Amino acid sequence: MDLSAYTILVVEDHDFQRRMTLRLLKDLGAETLLEASNGREALQSLVDRGEPVDIILCDLDMPEMDGVEFISRVAEFRLAHAVAVVSAMEISILNTVETMAKAYGLQVLGAISKPLNLQDLTKCISSFQPKGSVRAASVAPSEFNVEDLKNGLVEREFIAFFQPKVSFATGEVLGVEALVRWFRPGHGVVSPLYFIHQMELEGLVTPLTEVLLTQTCGYLKAWARRGYELTASVNVSMLCLSDVSIADRLHDLVKDSDCEPKQIILEVTETEVMVDVAKVLNVLARLRLKGFGLSIDDFGTGYSSLQQLSNVPFTELKIDQSFVKDSPIQPRHRTIIEASLDLARKLKLKTVAEGVETRAEWDLLKSLGCLQAQGYFIARPMPGHQVLDWIQMWQAPEEA
User: Fold this and answer.
1) Would you say domain 7-125 falls under CATH 3.40.50.150?
2) Where in the chain is the domain with CATH 3.40.50.2300?
3) pLDDT one-digit tens code per residue, 135-146
4) Over the stretch 366-396, which tens digit does the pLDDT of each residue have?
């Protein structure tokens, strides 16, 4: 990677460590290097400069202004494109700060433990993606209102994409997860990140779920005619589940589509909108009685995850991608995954790891006994008509 075109700021209160970092960066080809001995000095330097730097390498434990406060200020005033934490602090603190920086919207290159070496620095810096170098997979909307959403439903602009789920043990494709995309004329593809919450607020998330389920059943039937009996997971907001009539409606919809409820796994997602817990439990129990599978989505990321496991008749547990990511090199992530898998086995739940993106993550999850994998290492979400072609080309990784 050519670093000569980028401006890099090193924030480190220890003179020797700062000089060593600058020397290593020069060895990697960096030419425009800035330095500061604490967060306050660095912040003032960035403000005076008047334009963001490309990369900041920042210590955490510094006088005047510590690295945590400094990173939050950098994000608030958009003074850098990317940040990497370099510190001797314990790994749990580094992980927390890394997560915080991402939440602030900064590109995070990693958290490097001291003493810094050329190999770790090279790996960290090489992940930098210059602003504008990556084409977004989806387009954020300029603005839209409830009428745009309603019109999108009427005009069938909301389309199901499918991401395969495969067996760790055999490599067999077992099913798919349905993921909605909004093909909005004149605006490109809009990610659900930008419209799901508004649909919840406007009372439109249930019609959207029904549209998605209808499309999914259509593809399940078409795939079955070609000899592929798959299951499909569909996300269902708790807000949908507070409507006591939804169990019958979803059952009728699936049967009218010539599918069976046992082919459908409903992934229960939390919502910020207040729901009636008694009604939700009523509906979930009836959905299981009707044969639907129930999956607890993003397990471990919500405060009520364990309580939900206790109260709801789940059949599947999905390990959140935030724990899967970097799990081969993050001992705390691995420990959380091991505990989740052990809990699932004791509760007799199927397990799915989502967000599997590397061979190392695949090998680790497989060795720990997870049953199914989903993520970019296997396949990206795709239109329904591409699924069978992908299945015929798919080959699971061979044993190392």
Assistant:
1) no
2) 7-125
3) 333 444 546 788
4) 999 999 999 999 999 988 988 999 999 999 9
Cα–Cα distance, 270 to 281 (Å, whole number): 13
| Residue 283: Cβ-neighbour burial (10 angstroms; 0-12, 13-18, 19+) | buried
Average pLDDT over residues 240-259: 94
Give SS3 for 233. Answer: strand
Residue 134 has pLDDT above 50, yes or no: no
Contact 225, 175 (CB under 8 A): no
Residue 73 CA to residue 128 CA, distance in Å, equals: 21
Side-chain-side CA neighbours of residue 186 (13 Å): 5
pTM exceeds 0.90 for this model: no
Which residues, other chains included, contact 346 with Cβ-Cβ below 8 Å and sequence gap of 6+?
none
Outline where 203-328 has alpha helix (H). 205-225, 238-241, 246-256, 277-289, 305-311, 321-324
Fold of 146-393: TIM Barrel (3.20.20)
